């Protein structure tokens, strides 16, 4: 977006603000998304979501409390690993309809937020291994990557805790990101140049051997 201005007093780190809707003075932005010509959203590592509709001149908070505060209320409800939460997200991804999915820094659970909700909703991970990354499919469902390799897709659309593992040929390397171009076509990228493609919505994946000789990790699909 054109016309971005730094938030803060101009004397230090651009992420530092005196106070923003009651959240801590030191703010670390982990996700920024322009949602229109005059609108944008920003997410902090504490789970604060800020939205603007006037090119960034004014921002309002979309959630009422930090993730740490939410977990303090819900830790007794059975969210495994919530007591070990370090206050930061590992990854954050936004769907076209404005919903968010975030993975805890340890990868032992994940959180979701939909427009209008007052706070993030924590979810137990549905797989044995810790979560590497999560995001949205083009049909509105979720994809999930686990540490050490492994791709899972949620059953149905929308937010779900029911996932099924999808066989992939990653040559033993972990997959780090997935990106959908349409409901049928998507790409997955990972360690040591792993590049996979699906043309049937994720049911089967084939390796693009053109990337086999890339001596580097592919961290993101754009």
From TrEMBL:
<dbReference type="Pfam" id="PF14870">
    <property type="entry name" value="PSII_BNR"/>
</dbReference>
<protein>
    <submittedName>
        <fullName>Photosystem II stability/assembly factor HCF136, chloroplastic</fullName>
    </submittedName>
</protein>
<feature type="domain" description="Photosynthesis system II assembly factor Ycf48/Hcf136-like">
    <location>
        <begin position="31"/>
        <end position="222"/>
    </location>
</feature>
<dbReference type="InterPro" id="IPR028203">
    <property type="entry name" value="PSII_CF48-like_dom"/>
</dbReference>
